[in-house]
Design brief:
- It is a single chain.
- The protein has 258 residues and is α/β, with parallel strands linked by helices.
- The chain contains 10 helices and 7 strands.
- It has one domain: NAD(P)-binding Rossmann-like Domain (Rossmann fold, 3-Layer(aba) Sandwich).
- α4 packs parallel to α5 and α5 runs parallel beside α6.
């Protein structure tokens, strides 16, 4: 089989959370460019509308759904809207996340809880929603959770984020084990430092220059560096892969452990 056929997503309906910027926006564009119809979910409606317009202009199909991932009712309505407009969601990209820098001694419980709510609890509840709907429809599907290298390591000031992402790695394994009989695969992607609009200025600073020296490939990642693993896990190319977490970090983790 040719690669273009193996990675083709024609007929798939993909829902991407956190699609208004950064990795989520790139994921939505990549999935659409490879044949999927895309449900773009986030809180910033203006950004979503612009993204959907770009996808449609390029010949793809997409809709915008404004929702907070911590609002289960709003997420449920997004799945309903997706079904009405495009069909049953068969690929879920659990991407939405936040990071708040706060040392443990000074961190409020509200900060801890907010980071866990978005980065772990919402991942759980949205994956559960997707799985239930796929099971009712008796259809196979794919869940891809976005973890982080900080799910395997940690950094000062990012304790809540690291704990949440470690939870995402283990949640992914649990989902894979329990959902396999229904034909639903669950995997995760753990990026290292990827340049986005949120962190671009910081990564270009002197501190960023010092950080990049510790990465074996000697550069920060670009959003396009995740295209390959995203398509592998979303498509039939990865049909026998479940319960895995793919680290995409330029060798950052192996450098930390050497």
């Amino acid at each position: 089989m040719k690669a273009a056929e193996l990675f083709d997503l024609t007929g798939a309906i993909a829902l991407v959370t956190g699609a208004s910027s950064g990795l989520g926006e790139r994921f939505a564009r990549t999935l659409a460019a490879n044949g999927a119809k895309v449900v773009c979910l986030a809180r910033r409606r203006d950004r979503l509308d612009a993204l959907v317009a770009d996808i449609v202009k390029a010949g793809g199909a997409a809709i915008a759904c404004e929702a907070d991932v911590t609002d289960a009712a709003a997420v449920g309505r997004a799945f309903d809207a997706a079904k009405a407009a495009l069909g049953d969601v068969s690929i879920l990209i659990n991407n939405a996340g936040i990071a708040e820098v706060s040392r443990l001694a000074d961190q409020s419980f509200e900060t801890w809880r907010r980071v866990l709510d978005v980065n772990l609890d919402a991942v759980y509840s949205i994956a559960q929603e997707a799985a239930r709907r796929l099971a009712r429809a008796q259809k196979p599907g794919v869940i891809i959770n976005i973890a982080s290298v900080l799910g395997f390591a940690t950094a000062k000031g990012l304790s809540a984020y690291a704990v949440a992402k470690a939870g995402v790695v283990q949640l992914t394994r649990a989902l894979a084990l329990e959902l396999a009989p229904a034909g639903i695969r669950a995997n995760a992607i753990a990026p290292g430092w990827i340049v986005t609009e949120i962190n671009r200025d910081f990564l270009a600073s002197p501190r960023g220059a010092a950080m990049v020296r510790s990465i074996p490939l000697k550069r920060f990642g670009q959003t396009g560096d995740l295209d390959g693993v995203l398509l592998l896990l979303a498509s039939d190319a990865g049909r026998y892969i479940t319960g895995a977490t793919y680290v995409v970090d330029g060798g950052q983790l192996i450098a930390l452990s050497s």
